[in-house]
Amino acid sequence: MPTIVYRYEGFRLVDVSRQYPQLLRGEARDLRTSIRQAARRSDRQVIRGLLPALCADLYRLGEGAACRRELALAKRRGWLRKSGAGDVWPAGRRYIPKVMRFLKRTGYR
Q1: 1 in a structural domain
Q2: Considering its fold, how many domains does the chain have in total?
Q3: Structural domain contains residue 30
């Protein structure tokens, strides 16, 4: 899951992560590094788990187009194909729509 920074206001927690773009950029950089490492190991399952967190950070930074480019790149490189039992995220053509619905449902986009 992506890092979320909360502030306590009026008896509730408010997500103020967008106020810390350097933190979000750093996390996005680390996630990209982890994705490249997983790609070297041909671990598509890990890649499909990391991409939604990367996209969440990119959307909070106002860079939704970068998220869509990352997803398209993963598709072109074959990283979205099914890799085995225990996959949490769907594989193939169902993956990107599922990620986009997840991002919308959870308020990232």
Answers
A1: no
A2: 1
A3: yes
